[in-house]
Write a structure and sequence with these properties.
The protein is of the alpha+beta class. The protein has two domains: 91 residues, no CATH class; 96 residues, Flavocytochrome B2, Chain A, domain 1 (Roll), CATH 3.10.120. The protein has eight helices and eleven strands. Bound molecules: protoporphyrin IX containing FE. InterPro entries: Cyt_B5-like_heme/steroid-bd, Cyt_B5-like_heme/steroid_sf, Cyt_B5_heme-BS, Cytochrome_b5. Pfam families: Cyt-b5.
Length: 225
């Protein structure tokens, strides 16, 4: 789970004066956004429910699934698994129920991809637990196939040497700068970043609006006495 800032229209409880506009602090945006600050229109004096106009700023709950450099990281735990794999350990995953293969030094868990593979599951199972770089390249797989490799990659093979003759940038570039778990964490932390002025809007302005409203009610009462 990560928190991100959002902007969007929203519904909020707002204090309105007369038949005019009021400032509200409530829910904004979809889905599951909260603490939004919006401007709402409402009739009458008092606290009412108003539809937000314009922009609302706030915090948003979102799933921790992030896409980075073309790769989906389902969650933090999975990104931490992107470590170096011992070849002996890889070799143990050689069944249909648990099928890992190595392509260009990347360890890929293709168990969930077996049925989806256009070339059939048999060829993948035959190479299970082993390096299938040659077989993979012999077919002349497309860029889409290489993206699948990034998607299902769970780590790198221990002791694998970066090869200068990798002829595809998709792989060569990533080898030179493999994505490490720490970088992913930093990426997520950046998503959390909330500018100071948003904090001001979220907390100070609603209290200010409430204070104005109470002052207005107080003046009204005082004048009637
Ligand atoms: C042992 C290694 C592999 C062999 C021998 C192999 C074999 C094949 C063959 C024969 C085809 C052609 C099917 C056809 O056109 O009828 C194919 C297509 C395909 N394979 Fe593989 N494959 C291997 C590994 C992989 C891996 C690891 C992935 C991705 C994780 C993958 C993804 C694809 C995709 C997406 C296609 C569709 C055509 C394309 O986009 O290139 N394959 N494969």
């Amino acid at each position: 789970m990560v928190m991100t800032n959002f902007t969007g229209t929203g519904i909020g409880f707002g204090a309105g004066i007369g038949c005019g506009f009021g400032v509200g602090w409530g829910f904004g945006g979809m889905p599951l956004n909260f603490l939004g600050l919006g401007v709402g229109g409402g009739c009458g004096v008092g606290v009412g429910l108003g539809w937000g106009f314009g922009s609302a700023f706030g915090s948003q709950y979102r799933n921790s699934r992030v896409t980075f450099d073309g790769t989906d990281f389902i969650n933090k735990e999975r990104s931490e698994e992107r470590d170096l794999k011992d070849p002996a350990k890889v070799a143990q995953h050689k069944s249909k129920q648990d099928c890992w293969i190595i392509i260009h030094g990347r360890v890929i868990d293709v168990t969930k991809f077996l049925e989806e593979h256009p070339g059939g599951e048999e060829v993948l199972i035959e190479s299970a637990g082993k390096d299938a770089t040659k077989e993979f390249e012999d077919i002349g797989h497309s860029k889409a196939a290489k993206n699948y490799i990034l998607k299902y990659q769970i780590g790198y093979l221990q002791g694998y040497k970066i090869q200068d003759d990798d002829d595809d940038n998709l792989f060569t570039d990533s080898y030179k700068e493999p994505i490490k778990a720490k970088e992913i964490e930093a990426f997520v932390i950046k998503l959390n970043f909330k500018p100071k002025h948003l904090v001001f809007f979220e907390y100070f302005v609603p209290f200010l609006a409430a204070a104005f409203f109470l002052y207005y009610r107080y003046l009204n009462g005082a004048l009637q006495l």
